[in-house]
Amino acid sequence: MHPLEPDEPTAVGPYRLLGRLGSGGMGRVYLGRSAGGRTVAVKVVHPHFAQDEGFRARFRREVEAARRVGGAWTAPVLDADPGAPVPWVATGYAAGPSLTDAVRDGGPLPEHSTRVLVAGLAEALAQVHGLDLVHRDVKPSNVLLTLDGPCLIDFGIARATDGTATRTALTSTGVSLGSPGYMAPEQILGNGVDGAADVFSLGAVLVFAATGRAPFPGDSTAALLYKVVHEQPELGGLSGDLRDLAAACLHKDPAARPAPADVSRRLAPGGAAALVTAGWLPGPLVERVSRSAVRLLNLDAAGAPAAGPPPGDPVPASGPVPFTGPAVGVFGPPDASYGAPPAVSYVVAPAVTDGGATGTGGGPEDSPRPGKLSLSVAAAAAPAGSDGRGRKVSCTVVLAVAGALAAVTVGTVFVFAMLPEDGDDTKDSAGRTPSATGDARTPAGGAVPVRYLGEWRGKASTQNGLVPLGTFDVTVQQASGPGRRIGTVTQTDLIGNKCVDVLTLKSASAKELVARGVGARTNDGQCSQTPHTMRLRPVGAELQYTSVDPKAGDPEARLRKVG
Predict the structure, then answer these.
(1) 425 carries an active-site annotation
(2) What CATH topology corresponds to 9-188+195-207+223-406?
């Protein structure tokens, strides 16, 4: 957990904030405490999203969908205000690390722990699917390991299966459909998605928990998506019924996968709760949770108490529902299309004098440094713009581990700053910009025919168009000769993740431009950094893009000029 920075709020609604847990593509996550002493996770959306009416409607719908979910193995929403100038939601804080962190720090879980984990998650999914909802993003970072059992979080993208949630809404800015390597084949291909997709993801989580490795490893999003659709899972050292169950859940045919209730019965015939009561976590994890809870007891909030209702836990504004925040990432400045952010009116933290935590960002050569996020927006500001367990096993705990909710969905967006090397190679010796006419002409002092210069965009795919890879944006600029940087390729995959390749000229003629591509240093870990050869060939007014990159499936795209 990080201390609050000077421009961050000390209170949101009736909750005093103790620190910042993490940040995501749509907001920041804070550790908070109610007037009655309950510890909660408060998620506040980025101010510029509050001006997007489409986002607000989506946020409200997702809260309503999440309201229908409750019970064991999920974290409840305690309070929410989708209509606030800056929408926020407060959830019960679960005491435990994410499965991602637990495996990273301590290795695979013991077999008994894996059985309890998957049985509990299957019970949760059975309840969710019974309400005609689909989680859509079951993965290790959305699973918390608590003393009371596993806890499935991030229902913020659960969608009704009644046809009211359109693909357009799901693919809007900042909304993630799933995570590479854990998405079902039908989800990747854009086909109809039902509860069977969650079962596929559950099988992948089983493999990760038991072996420490994902069943579909790869060093790029494209490679992961290709493997999920076309290749068999790598089950590592799994054996016996766990191996059989994982293989069944990971079947390419949705109809061949078991139902969640069948999964839970196979692993815990008497129910997961009985196994949890007998103890389910290994000693090191139990100690980790306990130490974190003790540390939390000593936390206090700085600044004035929050304004809000009288002492006592607040009456939930949206009813008990599981709902958590979106993807983990690093905030950058708001997109200019949203206009200026609204005026601020949250309580702002006093100046920090001990050098509190700062944000992280990419290197200056490949990406602009992310700007600070201000969450102090005026309450009077109106949204603008046209376009938010007898013993039932519960993972709602008053005390919590400080970093549990910092690991949510991955999907950081990087923007690459295009700068020519050693001066501006886009001008000739007289300082004039080359003409854009004459496709085959190469301007004086330049090595790239004008035909290729500019900004190009197109849909990419692999396997002769059978596997969509998202959108490729290619920028080509002038260069003085081979070995010089000529531009970038920005790959935006089906779930909104972006990877940037830097292009260095190898050769150029009227018939073909050949460049060496390599991943930018700012790229996230899911992006391939393997050097590869990219080719552009004129086809009428368009360009045919091909790439010799087997790990990414040798992608192709037909590009049209957009700038």
Answers:
(1) no
(2) Transferase(Phosphotransferase); domain 1 (1.10.510)
